[in-house]
Amino acid sequence: MTAAPYNYSYIFKYIIIGDMGVGKSCLLHQFTEKKFMADCPHTIGVEFGTRIMEVHSQKVKLQIWDTAGQERFRAVTRSYYRGAAGALMVYDITRRSTYNHLSSWLTDARNLTNPNTVIILIGNKADLEAQRDVTYEEAKQFSSNLCFLFLLRSAVSRSENVEEAFLEAAKKIYQNIQDGSLDLNAAESGVQHKPSAPQGGRLNADSQPAKEGCSC
C-alpha cells in the first residue's frame, strides 16, 4: 500500500533566542496559535511549536524551538542550535541589557549553527515608545553591519510583523536552496525535503527583497 503524501514539501527548523522576558514565548504562541497572549510564562529549557506556511506556492512546515533565556539553561539550549535553518534573535526595546546581550546570543548562533543559517533581529514591545531604551537607529545599524533583517514587533495584539519575521526567514532559506548554498543532504542544513516536493529542491522564487536587510 502506498503511503499518503505529506501535505507539505519541506521542513525548516527555527530557533528563537534572547534574554529571559523579552517575549520569545509570546512570539511563538502568537505565530503558531494565532492568538495574542499579553503575558507568557518563562520557558524552562525549551518549548516547541509548529505551523505550515505557504511560500512561493509550496507548503513548508516550520518546526520552532523557543529556548529559555536564563543563563542556567544555556548548556541545555545550545544543543538545539544545531541544525537550525533560521534563528529569530529577540530583544526588548525597553530594556537595554537585553540589547547589550545580543552579541553573546549571536556568538552562540554563529558558532553552533551552519554558516547559511538565516538570522532575523526582532525588537519587541515596539508600542511602548515612551519606555524605549534602545533607539531604532542603533538596532538598525547593528543588524545592517551584520547583514541580517531587522523588524520591530508590537507588544499589543497586532500580528503583522510576527508573520513577516517567520515568512521572510523562510523566503531567504528558499533562496539559499535555489542558489545551491544550502546542501539539503547535510544534517546541519536545518531543512528536510519531503517526497511531495519537486525533484532537485529547486524553487521558482518570486520573493521581494527583505525589508531593512541586505544581500550578503
Topology, element by element:
Layout: E1 10-17, H1 24-33, E2 46-55, E3 58-67, H2 74-77, E4 86-92, H3 96-100, H4 102-112, E5 118-124, H5 136-146, E6 149-153, H6 160-178, E7 191-193
Parallel strand pairs: 1-3, 1-4, 4-5, 5-6
Antiparallel strand pairs: 1-7, 2-3
Write the CATH architecture name: 3-Layer(aba) Sandwich
Structural class designation: alpha/beta
User: Uncertain spans, ≥5 residues at pLDDT below 50?
Assistant: 197-213
Strand/helix succession? EHEEHEHHEHEHE
Beta-strand proportion: 15-25%
CATH superfamily: P-loop containing nucleotide triphosphate hydrolases
Largest pleated sheet? 7 strands, mixed
Question: What's the total count of β strands?
Answer: 7
Number of helices: 6
Family: Belongs to the small GTPase superfamily. Rab family.
GO molecular function: G protein activity; GTP binding
EC number: 3.6.5.2
Cofactor: Mg(2+)
Folded structure, characterized:
By secondary structure, the chain is an alpha/beta fold. It has a single domain, classed as 3-Layer(aba) Sandwich (Rossmann fold). The protein is built from six helices and seven strands, in the order βαββαβααβαβαβ. The chain has helices spanning 24-33, 74-77, 96-100, 102-112, 136-146, 160-178, and strands at residues 10-17, 46-55, 58-67, 86-92, 118-124, 149-153, 191-193. Strands 1, 2, 3, 4, 5, 6 and 7 form a seven-stranded mixed β-sheet that branches. α5 (136-146) links the parallel β5 (118-124) and β6 (149-153). The N and C termini lie far apart (47 Å). 38% of the residues are buried. This is Ras-related protein Rab-14. It is a lipid-anchor. Keywords: Acetylation, Cytoplasmic vesicle, Endosome, Golgi apparatus, GTP-binding, Hydrolase, Lipoprotein, Membrane, Methylation, Nucleotide-binding, Prenylation, Protein transport, Transport. Residues 189-216 are annotated as: Disordered. It is found in: Cytoplasmic vesicle, Phagosome; Early endosome membrane; Golgi apparatus, trans-Golgi network membrane; Recycling endosome.
